[in-house]
Write a structure and sequence with these properties.
Layout (H helix, E strand, L loop, with lengths): L4 E12 L2 E12 L3 E5 L6 H8 L7 E6 L2 E2 L4 H7 E4 L11 H11 L4 H14 L15 H12 L6 E5 L7 H16 L3 E6 L10 E6 L2 E6 L1 H7 L5 H12 L1
Helix pairs in contact: 3-4, 5-6
Subcellular location: Membrane
GO molecular function: ATP binding; ATP hydrolysis activity
Protein name: ABC-2 type transport system ATP-binding protein
Length: 244
């Protein structure tokens, strides 16, 4: 069976003055795949993601996301995706219910859809007793879970997660990844950036960026075999040394 491409990137670059943040990267992502976009802080991951979600224009190259050109059809790209930013994107001074209603409206859902989705989301996260609490009062782990769930409100084809588990404890990280698995099982494509190399093990395939370029792309198992190492962290260290 032929895999369905949901992201296709060809020679995509982003330059700021003389600085090349993303250097002619090419890759494909398939429907229902958990695709890890890995690299150290400053490697170009977030810059590349911003081009793919239509909020930063590429300097050169091509990219199709959910079949839409990121340069000429940014509005359709934005409608087809969910996005969870590195910095928590909910409003601390609104309640859980108000946040869900607000973002549901942005995503173009009807009042009935928002009501239905709110009840379902609150039940899944077991937040019934906290629905009228300010989001600012929630622990970080709960904020992250809520933010992920809200990014899925409009049932997007692809969800982009930028460092979604930064700063949370190991147990919450594991729970968050269980939510990711459940969503991928429904056919949603998950595109996740992280600098936690152990999280690469949870992905179907990973791309490793070093200084703006993709230095490796394969399954975690194949990459460890290729570089003859025991962990993805060791793979990354080998690649970083090679570039130096």
């Amino acid at each position: 069976m032929t895999k369905e491409k949901i992201i296709a990137v060809q020679n995509l670059s982003k330059q700021f003055g003389n600085f090349i943040a993303v250097n002619s990267i090419s890759f494909e992502v398939y429907k229902g795949e958990i695709f890890g976009f890995l690299g150290a802080n400053g490697a170009g991951k977030t810059t590349a993601m911003k081009m793919l979600i239509g909020i930063s224009k590429p300097t050169s190259g091509e990219a199709l996301v959910a079949g839409f050109d990121v340069k000429t059809n940014t509005e359709m790209v934005k409608r087809s995706i969910g996005y969870m930013s590195q910095k928590f994107s909910m409003y601390d001074d609104l309640t859980i219910k108000e946040n869900i209603t607000f973002f549901g409206g942005i995503y173009g859902l009807s009042r009935n859809q928002i009501k239905e989705k709110t009840e379902k989301l609150v039940s899944q996260l077991e937040l019934e007793d906290a629905v009228d609490k300010l989001v600012g009062s929630l622990p970080l782990g709960w904020k992250q879970k809520l933010s992920f769930s809200v990014a899925l409100l409009h049932e997007p084809k692809i969800v982009f997660l930028d460092e979604p588990t930064g700063g949370v404890d190991p147990i919450t990280r594991r729970q968050f990844w269980e939510m990711i698995y459940a969503e991928a099982d429904k056919g949603t494509t998950i595109f996740v950036t992280t600098h936690y190399m152990d999280e690469a093990e949870y992905c179907d395939r990973v791309s490793i960026m070093v200084e703006g370029s993709i230095e490796a792309l394969d399954t975690p198992k194949n990459l460890k075999k290729k570089y003859n190492v025991a962990s993805m962290n060791d793979v990354f260290l080998k690649l970083a040394r090679n570039v130096e």
